[in-house]
Amino acid sequence: MNCAISGEIPEEPVVSKKSGLLFEKRLIERHISEYGKCPITGEPLSMDEIVPLKTGKIVKPRPLTAASIPGMLGMFQNEWDGLMLSNFALEQQLLTARQELSHALYQHDAACRVIARLRKERDEARSLLSHAERQIMPMSASTAVAANASALSNGKRAAEDEDLGPDGKKLRPGISSAIITELTECNAGLSQQRKKRQIPSTLAPIEALERYTQLSSHPLHKTSKPGIVSLDINYSKDVIATGGVDTNAVLFDRPSGQIVSTLSGHSKKVTSVKFVTQGDLLVTGSADKTVRLWQGSEDGNYDCRHILKDHTAEVQAVTIHATNSYFVTASLDSTWCFYDISSGLCLTQVADTSGPEGRLEGYTSAAFHPDGLILGTGTSEALVKIWDVKSQANVAKFDGHVGAVTAISFSENGYYLATAAHDGVKLWDLRKLKNFRTFEFNDADTPTNSVDFDHSGSYLAVAGADIRVYQVASVRGEWNCVKTFPDLSGTGRATCVKFGTDAKYIAVGSMDRNLRIFGLPGDGPSESESVS
């Protein structure tokens, strides 16, 4: 009998308990380690279900061409021809490698000369600046004293004018009845649309996702502080925003492969970036405890319209409401804030003291439900909390994770919630408020950093030690892993993942400062168009 994979007589035959098919042992072991299923039937399969067969030693018959001297001479001639062709190909590769090395050495030499010149200019500029400061210092002493006195006076007045409650905290206007009505009407409209929703015909099929590969890699952030920790996509313009460890947010135009704008202003890493789909706005949250609201202009630049300083610890997440008029921020200070986008005003700041002995739990992730009346948050204490936005009440809690909940994502149908933590990904049924599936991964040292449902609710992407795409099914159905991408950054840590329009591509950020685009070959900018 022949191997079901290679079609040849196996040297180490094994048979599947499930299908009864015969395989070569080394081939089926490799297939199961990569895909975890039978290559013929597609059913889940493990090595425990493979049984080795004991057979006598197989003696392969001598080929017909080796039965005569002319045949053997022909075989030797063919082998010699193949050896010569291989040798010629190796010589060509060696020549190309030498040319590339020569070009690289020339570029390195030129770069060293440029660096030396820039260092010389820098030292000269520092010397001139030091000389100018020594001349200006005596003249500005009296002005500085007056300015300090004025600032002190203004600071006192600001502290006196600030509205504080009896507990010393800022008073918030709250979510008014008019806003609640607006949120309720938005919820009703979206719920009605969802009942009529159909999966778009333009959605990438499973067969296409299985053939996805890396299309391009773009080094968007600084080499001194590498790492992309957050990303979002403006689907109407096909622009990707990334937040980096280098304190910058970068806007990248995917079709052209060019950087549109670099937003500087935060003093620590940008932990969250979110587009407001109306009004050309971007909201960024940072470990410097601030939130910034950026307004785009016609020339492509973005100006900081508001700097929000309502949190007292790192801002870990930003999520935009479906009305595009409000957004929520979540922080390690154990509060989440509800903001009005137009004014930048914090309408309410919510702290949950329902933890053990009233202990506060820092928030590490947050996301609005697609209908907008439910908010999901993940905490540093491995809890997932569900909130009623209208009353700001905690209406449900999900436990079972290990480590901080790093990311959460609601499915477009509104039924499922995916949460990521150190121990993997859990799927929750919001109708019954229970966990119905858990994905655990082999690398116990690398947490799962990001989860994302595509806009149709057909696929789920997971980023951690690698990037995996699952086909969304029912509660009882099988959520099959459609594709696994290795972490090409070399850091062993993919930090964020997001589906493009109709899942036609997948954007991935990692700790090597590169934004990677995965899709079908020919659908995106090539490596030569990558930003350098």
UniProtKB/TrEMBL annotation:
<feature type="repeat" description="WD">
    <location>
        <begin position="308"/>
        <end position="349"/>
    </location>
</feature>
<keyword id="KW-0677">Repeat</keyword>
<keyword id="KW-0747">Spliceosome</keyword>
<dbReference type="InterPro" id="IPR003613">
    <property type="entry name" value="Ubox_domain"/>
</dbReference>
<feature type="repeat" description="WD">
    <location>
        <begin position="356"/>
        <end position="397"/>
    </location>
</feature>
<comment type="similarity">
    <text>Belongs to the WD repeat PRP19 family.</text>
</comment>
<dbReference type="InterPro" id="IPR001680">
    <property type="entry name" value="WD40_rpt"/>
</dbReference>
<keyword id="KW-0539">Nucleus</keyword>
<keyword id="KW-0508">mRNA splicing</keyword>
<protein>
    <recommendedName>
        <fullName>Pre-mRNA-processing factor 19</fullName>
        <ecNumber>2.3.2.27</ecNumber>
    </recommendedName>
</protein>
<comment type="function">
    <text>Probable ubiquitin-protein ligase which is mainly involved pre-mRNA splicing and DNA repair. Component of the MAC complex that probably regulates defense responses through transcriptional control and thereby is essential for plant innate immunity.</text>
</comment>
<dbReference type="GO" id="GO:0005737">
    <property type="term" value="C:cytoplasm"/>
</dbReference>
<dbReference type="InterPro" id="IPR015943">
    <property type="entry name" value="WD40/YVTN_repeat-like_dom_sf"/>
</dbReference>
<dbReference type="Pfam" id="PF24814">
    <property type="entry name" value="WD40_Prp19"/>
</dbReference>
<keyword id="KW-0808">Transferase</keyword>
<dbReference type="GO" id="GO:0070534">
    <property type="term" value="P:protein K63-linked ubiquitination"/>
</dbReference>
<dbReference type="Pfam" id="PF08606">
    <property type="entry name" value="Prp19"/>
</dbReference>
<comment type="function">
    <text>Ubiquitin-protein ligase which is mainly involved pre-mRNA splicing and DNA repair. Required for pre-mRNA splicing as component of the spliceosome.</text>
</comment>
<keyword id="KW-0399">Innate immunity</keyword>
<keyword id="KW-0507">mRNA processing</keyword>
<feature type="repeat" description="WD">
    <location>
        <begin position="398"/>
        <end position="438"/>
    </location>
</feature>
<dbReference type="GO" id="GO:0000974">
    <property type="term" value="C:Prp19 complex"/>
</dbReference>
<keyword id="KW-0227">DNA damage</keyword>
<dbReference type="GO" id="GO:0061630">
    <property type="term" value="F:ubiquitin protein ligase activity"/>
</dbReference>
<dbReference type="InterPro" id="IPR013915">
    <property type="entry name" value="Prp19_cc"/>
</dbReference>
<dbReference type="GO" id="GO:0045087">
    <property type="term" value="P:innate immune response"/>
</dbReference>
<dbReference type="InterPro" id="IPR013083">
    <property type="entry name" value="Znf_RING/FYVE/PHD"/>
</dbReference>
<dbReference type="InterPro" id="IPR055340">
    <property type="entry name" value="RING-Ubox_PRP19"/>
</dbReference>
<keyword id="KW-0853">WD repeat</keyword>
<dbReference type="InterPro" id="IPR038959">
    <property type="entry name" value="Prp19"/>
</dbReference>
<feature type="repeat" description="WD">
    <location>
        <begin position="263"/>
        <end position="295"/>
    </location>
</feature>
<dbReference type="GO" id="GO:0071006">
    <property type="term" value="C:U2-type catalytic step 1 spliceosome"/>
</dbReference>
<keyword id="KW-0833">Ubl conjugation pathway</keyword>
<dbReference type="GO" id="GO:0006281">
    <property type="term" value="P:DNA repair"/>
</dbReference>
<feature type="domain" description="U-box">
    <location>
        <begin position="1"/>
        <end position="70"/>
    </location>
</feature>
<keyword id="KW-0391">Immunity</keyword>
<dbReference type="GO" id="GO:0042742">
    <property type="term" value="P:defense response to bacterium"/>
</dbReference>
<dbReference type="InterPro" id="IPR036322">
    <property type="entry name" value="WD40_repeat_dom_sf"/>
</dbReference>
<comment type="pathway">
    <text>Protein modification; protein ubiquitination.</text>
</comment>
<dbReference type="GO" id="GO:0000398">
    <property type="term" value="P:mRNA splicing, via spliceosome"/>
</dbReference>
<comment type="subunit">
    <text>Homotetramer. Component of the multiprotein assembly MOS4-associated complex (MAC) at least composed of MOS4, CDC5, PRL1 and PRP19 which is related to the PRP19C/Prp19 complex/NTC/Nineteen complex identified in other organisms. Associated with the spliceosome.</text>
</comment>
<keyword id="KW-0234">DNA repair</keyword>
